[in-house]
Amino acid sequence: MTAQHPSPLPRFSGHAAPYGGGDPYADYRTADFPFADLTDLADRRLGAGVVAANDEFFAQRENLLLPERPLFDPEHFGHKGKIMDGWETRRRRGPSAEQPWPADEDHDWALIRLGAPGVVRGIVVDTAHFRGNHPQAVSVEGASVSGSPAPEELLSAGVRWTTLLPRTPVGGHAANGFAVSVGRRFTHLRLSQHPDGGIARLRVYGDVVPDPGWLDALGTFDVVALENGGRVEDASDRFYSPAANTIRPDRSRKMDDGWETRRRRDRGHDWIRYRLTGQARIRALEIDTAYLKGNSAGWASVSVRDAEGGAGGDDGWREILPRTRLQPDTGHRFVLPVPAIGTHARVDVFPDGGISRLRLFGSLTEQGSTALADRHRELDG
Questions:
Q1: Which of 101, 180, 173, 174 is nearest to 141 (CA)?
Q2: Tell me, what's the pLDDT at 237?
């Protein structure tokens, strides 16, 4: 049997054609990246931020982490020039008329605090709408620093930076994706563009690795939440919105901030399967249908499975909330009569529709807490 090797990611290079009118995304270069279903560790909705940049003359650094895709207005100019939806620096120059070109080591940088520390599996440097003013190349480094360090602390000699993406050419008006294979936990990134230019968005996909000390101090927390290391493993339908929306922080603020399926025309039902922070003892749960009014799920049930306890496979599922009627645009709270132990959870909705959030409140078992602490220690290098 021949070994299967993953296909190399598509690489884009060079300038894009000047904007010629019409849909600005018509000639946008992109691809389906295998890591894009993982959590965006740099999602501002998880608490990520761009804490510093050496230059943001044309467009501010904070645009890098906006969750929406970049917009382009060909008529939008200001006193400094064209206003872009991204981070854009001024043009670098050499030291003299005889040497007007920037030196090979010249570059601009931005420091990013990840919203959820974790292992980075893939990075997308999106240069949408930067057609002739994108950087020639980019590089990304990662560091693990406890607490809430100031920019000068991150830039001090005592911080160890690890290369996640070496200096690599990128294309203009393109989603430039790169797989990362450094198996360590990071809290901050340093994005560099060589020698200058503009980047619209930065996406950092990976696995959340929460701080076990913090979770132990909390005691009871949401064991399926993204910021605590929960994740969606699979879902029956992602037609209107991602299933991962259901475990984001805070309440939904609009309809597409939750999970909504297409209308079923058969006798089936829809579902989402989750991996929890670790083996946990669940005591209460919440199903929220906020902003889903004429399209919320009619009924829902919740089941758990304990993969660590030997109950694997589909036969290991145990229902902890029987099929229950849901109301539109409403938070539904349930206290379990007996705590349920599991490593995985599944919500089933009948027959279709959507929910905005799922919360599973509990605490890690001794086994779950030990496993998380061991993983944290191993990935902290």
A1: 180
A2: 87
Q: Are 171 and 138 in contact (CB under 8 A)?
A: no
The share of the chain scoring above pLDDT 90, in percent, equals: 88
pLDDT surpassing 90 at residue 308: no
pTM, two decimals, is 0.92
Q: What is the per-residue pLDDT across 75-90, written as a single tens digit (0 to 9) for each?
A: 889 998 888 999 999 9
Segment 189-203 shows an average pLDDT of: 98
Q: Which residue reads 């920019």 in tokens? A: 151
Confidence of residue 309 (pLDDT cuts 50, 70, 90): low
Please give the structure tokens belonging to residue 159. Answer: 């911080």
